[in-house]
Amino acid sequence: HNPYYDNGIKLIDCYGEKMDEETLLLVEDYIDGKLHVFDQDWPELPFANRDRVGCTVDYVAGRNRYMGYLISLGIYSFRGIKVGLDCANGSSWNIAKSVFDALGADTYVINNKPNGLNINLNAGSTHIEGLQKFVVENHLDIGFAYDGDADRCLCVDEKGNVITGDHILYIYGCYMKERGKLITNTVVTTVMSNFGLYKAFDEQGIGYAKTAVGDKYVYEYMAKNGCRIGGEQSGHIIFSKYASTGDGILTSLKMMEVMLAKKKPMSELAAPLKIYPQVLENVHVTDKKAAQDDADVQAAVKAVAEALGDTGRILVRESGTEPLVRVMVEAPEHETCQKYVQQVVDVIKAKGYAI
What we know:
The protein is an alpha/beta fold.
């Protein structure tokens, strides 16, 4: 979901899951030339030799098998449904349309011409306004926006409204509960999920867990407790029965399934979930940790939390991939959110952390 210059590499272990943090840190140290690794100092970067030389494999057959697997999950025909896809000029560019076409949809696609520099550039789930316009102008029934590596999916309903990851968790969580498929009766969320989602789950008698932000924490909780669905507001959803990581195309197929099973448009499925106003400001900072640990910043956050009481909440956290501190407030009124976010951001700036 980042600009091309902040892109990283995903390392998957032999179980098809994201590699553990400890191993990733070792690999990073190795690449960065910090050569005290495995309790040993290396005078220079050791190259593989003789029988230790490996090779890379361009796994074309894997892509085809993957597409076949996704198509096999489509239990309803998409015939006659006009679907918009925003591929973020990323990894879904030549797969998503093929899958939807194979299932019979009338598929309309934008941002499916990657050139290495335009990934996520005013495109995809982080710039959803492009798909909103596209859906409305072309009178589409539904739109799906992926991010660059296509582990996220956000939807746009037939009226052009954004359907967030919280909506997806609500819609699919209810669908699972109705059919007796919501094992443990728990949907796994992160602390970034909206107040309104928990209220809506309470009304439906659905339990929920809250983890730290990050799909790996969601997946860890799901694996440990046998939960079937979990995810983030950003649209990173994990359906543990079908995949061990987030998969945007899978998410869009599952949303199509609910629409077709219940014979309702997306706007109607999302209607019972009332989202609290939320304001999130990203502050570019020199040092994420120092900014958050600063006593004056912490005092400002505490003052806002006390002022909101049980009518809303404040959350301040750092980005995992960029030099940002994120300040987020939820409250019954938008103006209240803005006022309190500004209070904290002003302190961060006054203390000289902002770039």
